Amino acid sequence: MSEFQDKVALVTGAGRGIGRAIALAFAAQGARVAANDLTPIHLDQTIAAAASTPGEARAFLADVSKKMEVQAMVEAVRDAFGRIDVLVNNAGVEPHASLLKMDEWDWDRTLAVNLKGPFLSMQSVGRVMAEQGGGVMVNIASIAGRAHGLKDRSAYVASKMGLIALTREAARELAAYNIRVNAVCPGRIETEMTADLRQDEAMVARWLREVPLGRLGQPQEVASLVLFLCSSRAGYITGQAYNVDGGRVMC
Ligand code: NAP
Fold first, then answer.
1. Quick one: CA dihedral 159, 193, 226, 71, positive or negative?
2. Could you tell me if the CB of 90 is within 6 A of ligand 1?
3. Whether residue 70 has its Cβ less than 6 Å from ligand 1
4. How many A from CA of 176 to the centre of ligand 1?
């Protein structure tokens, strides 16, 4: 039997892309998945896909950047499932704009979703996990938050670099409650987030030249690393950030 059988995993931004792959990977292992997203539009497909797994998924709508909504979501998940064993902070946005042209709104929204969101979720879920004796958290950062950086994405890069730092500090503080916290840093993965950029053949050719494995990644390849970090096989790992990027960044 899988060690995730009947475990409760809250995954944010689970309506599509990497979040959906993570939610379905947990459900495939028999987990009870609390699948969050902003709207039901895509989330309904995640819930439907989970129906053919040994686990289950239920929808919990919330904007992860809003404290009241996150608190209400965490309460609702606890009411529905009784506990929360795993938190995956995956929801994210990536606006493209040069520093000189970026709107204040884009800056604020990016930091609110990508950095404040994980803080709010880790705080609310951390209280639940501390009460129940432990748990595990994974924050989906990006190789853009490492030395790599990314042109015309200053808000995104700042948010992901901040998320890696927040992961370390959360791991340091929450270890006392038997809660492990790690970050996963994807490279370029084939999802909606990269759909526009993937139309640009020259851009894709450049990306592929930079990736030793010579291809883009799949959402399931990010999910595999997340499940490993949430498993007991990773029981002595906390405060770390791991790249899943075909070798694009080696640090
Ligand atoms: P995606 O396809 O754009 O999916 C992101 C999901 O998050 C969407 O379902 C979106 O909902 C949801 N979301 C956005 N804002 C939210 C909010 N405030 N509250 C709740 N849900 C929200 O993105 P992805 O490619 O799967 O990326 C997932 C994560 O991986 C992100 O954190 C991203 O930064 C990171 N990442 C991705 C790549 C890549 O190449 N794809 C690389 C590095 C890191 P809506 O559909 O309603 O907007």
1. positive
2. yes
3. no
4. 30
Q: Contact 53/9 with Cβ under 8 angstroms? A: no
**For residue range 9-19, what is the model confidence (pLDDT) as tens digits?**
999 999 999 99
pLDDT band for position 251 (cuts 50, 70, 90): confident
Residue of 38, 46, 74, 96 to test ligand 1 pocket, by largest number of atoms within 8 Å of CB:
38
The pTM of the whole model exceeds 0.90? yes
The pLDDT of residue 234: 98
Q: Residue 156 CA: which ligand 1 atom is closest?
A: 34
Examine the pLDDT at 109 and tell me if it is beyond 90: yes
Q: Is the pLDDT of residue 148 over 80?
A: no
Q: What is the dihedral sign for C-alpha 44, 45, 50, 51?
A: positive
Using the atom order of ligand 1, give the atom closest to the CA of residue 192: 2
Query: Can you give the three-state secondary structure of 174-215, one letter per residue?
Result: HHHHCEEEEEEEECCECCHHHHHHHCCHHHHHHHHHHCCCCC
DSSP, residue by residue, 136-159: EEEEE--GGGSTT--TTBHHHHHH
